[in-house]
């Protein structure tokens, strides 16, 4: 004899809005790392918030009756419309003063979900109770004692597989994703752009550039920047201490004491302990006598 279970979620719209506001509270009020437990909760709530909730509430508003759509059709359309609606809302935000940023997108989706939920609730209540759509799940669970040994073994294996799959998903979400380790080293002109570098200088005239470092090493690093001309060390900056993803920029000047054509000005980046340059950049400069 099997155990028959039937679960009807008559408060589905309330649950969706509740989970949406919990996600908003986490984003607005919490300071967390992606690998923390709150970061995992953000991912768990964030995926359906973007990929399912907008389409589900819209479908509920358009088709409030129980027989309007089959269950599988509602599921498919909920995902499909969410994927269509969210980019359209983002496109609309692009033409507003707020732009496509986290807070405007979050608020827009909250308003959209709340508005379509209210419309769905209104249209459902206009129908007779027996015709209103609510998500319903029915289960027929056989008693364990009625199963054969093979069925019991398969049931245990299936349960273990589900637990393993859920554990794997949680592990992937929680474990920090380490990409390529490198350091970004660049030179900009004094206007902060990749142009306007000094190329013609008088003797003892100072040329200026903006040197920049971005740490993508997934660890704390100490850096040193050396300016070398004619194999002579002219200047050293550092230690420059940066955490992962931290940026440093500073104006660096240099000058030459005698005329030269095609003087190679080298900017060498060292990490603490490096014997050879980790990164190198250079400029070609003509140095002439003062007129």
Average pLDDT across residues?
Answer: 85
Low-confidence segments, given as residue ranges, are none
The largest sheet has its strands arranged as 4-10-9-6-7
Number of helical regions? 6
Beta fraction: 25-35%
Number of separate domains: 2
The percentage helix is: 40-55%
Key traits:
elongated; 6 helices; 291 residues; five-stranded mixed β-sheet; alpha+beta; Immunoglobulin-like; three-stranded antiparallel β-sheet
Write the layout of secondary structure elements.
Layout: E1 2-8, H1 12-29, H2 37-51, H3 53-62, H4 71-94, H5 102-125, E2 136-142, H6 149-174, E3 182-188, E4 200-202, E5 207-216, E6 221-229, E7 232-242, E8 247-254, E9 260-271, E10 279-288
Parallel strand pairs: 4-10
Antiparallel strand pairs: 1-2, 3-5, 5-8, 6-7, 6-9, 9-10
């Amino acid at each position: 004899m099997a155990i028959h279970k039937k679960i009807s979620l008559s408060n589905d719209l309330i649950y969706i809005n509740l989970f949406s506001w919990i996600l908003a509270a986490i984003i607005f009020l919490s300071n967390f790392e992606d690998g923390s437990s709150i970061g995992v909760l953000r991912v768990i709530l964030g995926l359906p918030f973007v990929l399912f909730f907008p389409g589900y509430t819209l479908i509920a508003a358009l088709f409030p009756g129980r027989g309007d759509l089959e269950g599988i059709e509602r599921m498919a359309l909920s995902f499909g419309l969410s994927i269509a609606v969210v980019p359209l809302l983002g496109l609309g935000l692009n033409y507003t003063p707020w732009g496509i940023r986290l807070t405007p997108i979050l608020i827009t989706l909250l308003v959209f979900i709340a508005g379509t939920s209210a419309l769905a609730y209104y249209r459902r209540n206009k129908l007779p109770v027996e015709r209103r759509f609510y998500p319903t799940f029915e289960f027929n669970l056989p008693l364990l004692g009625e199963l054969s040994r093979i069925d019991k073994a398969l049931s245990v294996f299936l349960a273990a597989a589900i637990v393993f799959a859920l554990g794997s998903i949680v592990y992937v979400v929680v474990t920090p994703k380490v990409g390529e380790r490198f350091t970004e080293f660049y030179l900009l002109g004094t206007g902060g752009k990749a142009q306007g570098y000094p190329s013609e200088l008088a003797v003892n005239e100072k040329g200026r550039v903006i040197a920049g470092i971005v740490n993508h090493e997934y660890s704390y690093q100490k850096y040193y920047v050396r300016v070398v001309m004619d194999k002579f060390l002219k200047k050293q900056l550092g230690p420059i201490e940066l955490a992962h993803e931290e940026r440093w920029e500073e104006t660096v000047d240099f000058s030459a004491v005698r005329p030269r054509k095609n003087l190679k000005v080298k900017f060498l980046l060292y990490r603490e302990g490096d014997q050879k340059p980790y990164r190198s950049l250079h400029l070609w400069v003509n140095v002439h006598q003062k007129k």
